Amino acid sequence: MRGGIDLGGTKIQAVVVDDAGEVKGEERVPTPTGGGPPDVADAIAGALRGAADAAGVETAALDGVGVGSPGIVDTRKGVVSSARNLPDWEGSFPLAQTLGAAVGTRVRIENDVQVATNAEFELGAGRPYRSLLGVFWGTGVGGGIILKGRPWIGRGGAGEIGHVVVKKDGARCPCGRRGCMEAYAGRKALEQRARKRVEKGEKTDLFKIMEKRGRDRLTSGIWARALDHNDRVAAKLLDEAVEALGVGVASALNVLDVDAVILGGGLGLRLGEPYRERIEAAMMPHLFSSDDPPAMHMAALGDLGGAIGASLLIRPRRGAVAQPATVS
Q1: Do 119 and 111 touch, CB atoms closer than 8 A?
Q2: For the whole model, what pTM was predicted?
Q3: Do 131 and 110 have their domain in common?
Q4: What is the 3-state secondary structure of the chain?
Q5: Looking at residue 65, which CATH number applies to its domain?
Q6: pLDDT tens digit string along 86-141?
Q7: Residues 207 and 277 both lie in one domain
Q8: Burial class of residue 292 (count of CB atoms within 10 Å of its CB; 0-12, 13-18, 19+)
Q9: Is the residue at 32 inside a domain?
Q10: Are both 180 and 216 inside the same structural domain?
Q11: What is the dihedral of CA 223, 229, 233, 237, to 10 degrees?
Q12: Range of the domain at 9
């Protein structure tokens, strides 16, 4: 068996899978909101222990653990830098070494969205295609790239689609720059913009729903519930997010010209097919090859896709074949 971790700005999802790719145990915990990288590493270790318990195995008995992490990932050294959607993670932290010592097995780390894209390519909605752009819309907006059947990570920073500039000198992004797509579409930035609107006197149920649900941030579920309540602020901010996604994704497609786009992430999955259709429509005016656009699909592996993709960093033993995982 092997472990997989999807490290996100809101939650940490852990799975334990067998050589056939079947999920045998899973655990989800909130991502810490403070304490910095050591506290995040402790939470990852706890989530993995929970998944391992559910699978009936000790973490030290796992063949290894793959981690999909935001930020700049040095896969060779196992170091994560500048993961700004995580608490106080401005510098570099030896996540692989720290986590390996805590759980007693080898750890491999790669970009979180790239491993989720890899999973969709190998096991999910991307299986019919040789080239893909994964767009994962959640706390931030991340991208993963498959070209000619192989992941493309460039010098380590490829796929950062959330930082395509959609408006010169525009809104401040959590990365510190201005005008990034993530500044308009990322859930963290959306919450900041919602708070500013409340400060200016606009009315919204977003924060009432957050308190009622016992949350400390605006999760994807809260945005969906606000839309169900016909919340005008939520609808307006998500309209702006769709517009930014359309411009940014189209710009990336004009460069890469891939076969298909896979939409995932917490917000992408929660808002689902209607918003996939809206983003696709928002792309069309900006696509150079608008008469032959790429296919666009929802991620098929759901919330577990990132963790399953991370588990693929620890390859099955020789002779075993990974099959599509069973997910709920």
Answers
A1: no
A2: 0.84
A3: no
A4: CEEEEEECCCEEEEEEECCCCCEEEEEEEECCCCCCHHHHHHHHHHHHHHHHHHHCCCHHHCCCEEEEECCEEECCCCEEECCCCCCCCCCEECHHHHHHHHHCCCEEEEEHHHHHHHHHHHHCCCCCCCCEEEEEECCCEEEEEEECCEECCCCCCCCCHHHCECCCCCCECCCCCECECHHHHCHHHHHHHHHHHHHCCCCCCHHHHHHHCCCCCCCHHHHHHHHHCCCHHHHHHHHHHHHHHHHHHHHHHHHHCCCEEEEECHHHHHHHHHHHHHHHHHHHHHCCCCCCCCEEEECCCHHHHHHHHHHCCCCCCCCCCCCCCCCC
A5: 3.30.420.40
A6: 888 988 999 999 999 999 999 999 988 899 999 999 999 999 999 999 999 998 99
A7: yes
A8: exposed
A9: yes
A10: yes
A11: 40
A12: 2-116+303-311
Q: How far apart are CA 140 and CA 251, in angstroms?
A: 18
In a domain, 326, yes or no: no
- Number of folded domains in the chain? 2
In this predicted structure, what is the pLDDT of residue 316? 58
Assess contact for 24 and 18: CB atoms under 8 A. Answer: yes
| Cross-strand bridge partners of residue 264 | 136
What's the pLDDT at 190? 96
The pLDDT confidence band at residue 327, using thresholds 50, 70 and 90, is very low
More confident residue, 144 or 19: 144
Beta-bridge partners for 111: 69
Same domain, residue pair 284 and 307: no
**100 and 184 both lie in a single domain:** no
Same domain flag for 27 and 110: yes
Counting Cα atoms < 13 Å in the Cβ hemisphere of 282 gives 20
Instruction: Verify that 131 and 229 share a domain, yes or no.
Output: yes
Q: Is residue 205 part of a domain?
A: yes
Question: What is the rounded distance in angstroms from the CA atom of residue 236 to the CA atom of residue 42?
Answer: 38
User: Is the pLDDT assigned to residue 3 strictly greater than 70?
Assistant: yes
Q: What is the pLDDT of residue 33?
A: 86
Q: Is residue 19 part of a domain?
A: yes
Q: Is the dihedral of CA 275, 276, 277, 278 positive or negative?
A: positive
- Does residue 161 share a domain with residue 15? no
